[in-house]
Amino acid sequence: QVQLVESGGDMVQPGRSLRLSCAASAFTFSSYVMHWVRQAPGKGLEWVTVISHDGDDKYYADSVKGRFTISRDNSKNTLYLQMNSLRVEDTAVYYCAKVPYSGNYFAAFDIWGQGTMVTVSS
Amino acid sequence: QTVVTQEPSFSVSPGGTVTLTCGLSSGSVSTSYHPSWYQQTPGQPPRTLFYNTNIRSSGVPPRFSGSILGNKAALTITGAQADDESDYYCMLYMGGGISVFGGGTKLTVL
User: B-chain residues within 8 Å CB-CB of A95?
Assistant: First the structure.
């Protein structure tokens, strides 16, 4: 069945960088917009960023703009999140999520990964 | 800055009906915002319930329904069950690629 598996979470010091990956399977990855969503410990969900199916269009929450970069490799069915200049407040579980319709549909998710934990601490 | 509003908590009796809402700090929610709803239990990833206001995601039981009620999006549970006790999040699409979650509603079934 459709599956998303995140990896790359770790504990890092403030100011450092980290790259998350999301491996997709059982669907035509290159046809779907993909998102990253995060959840700080004990807090609610926060939308982070989205990328169009072809990688041409990318949008970010103000809280990560200029520090995080979303990308994808459709030949490898993999989504990425490059996180630079990490802050303590970036500590969260990071989920990748797929949209329910192919093409340039940005508005919701149908499938979520299990998440990967990022801890930013000195 | 636009804030998406949800009730922080709600309580429902087993077998009862509850409606959770999703509003805007300024303005009305319409189908143009493509409201979506997600359910999350502790330690688990979110599960999609509805997108595009009322499109039920795969496997979601019919006791759940999504709609627009007045100036808000709404999630109604008819005949609540114990395992419906969860956190519920709505999300609105603001356009230009940007989505915003509400703060979530903690639903207690007792």
Answer: 45-46
- Other C-beta atoms within 10 Å of A91: how many? 17
pLDDT tens-place string over residues B53-88: 999 999 999 999 999 999 999 999 999 999 999 999
In a mutational test of the A interface, the residue from B9, B36, B98, B100 whose CB has the highest number of chain A CBs within 10 Å is B98
A3 touches chain B (CB under 8 A): no
* Residue A88 in tokens: 């303590």
Give the model confidence (pLDDT) of A30-66 as tens digits: 999 999 999 999 999 999 999 999 999 999 999 999 9
A27 touches chain B (CB under 8 A): no
Q: How confident is the model at residue B1 (pLDDT cuts 50, 70, 90)?
A: confident
Model confidence at B2: pLDDT above 90: no
Residue whose C-alpha is closest to residue A83's, from A5, A3, A13, A4 = A13
Given a cut of 80, is residue B43 above it in pLDDT? yes
Residue A107 sits at the chain B interface (C-beta within 8 Å): yes
Q: From edge to edge, which strands make up the β-sheet containing B72-78?
A: B4-6, B17-24, B72-78, B64-69
The answer to whether A3 and A112 have CB atoms below 8 angstroms apart is no
- B16 to chain A, closest Cα gap in Å: 26
Flag if A61 and B98 touch (Cβ within 8 Å). yes
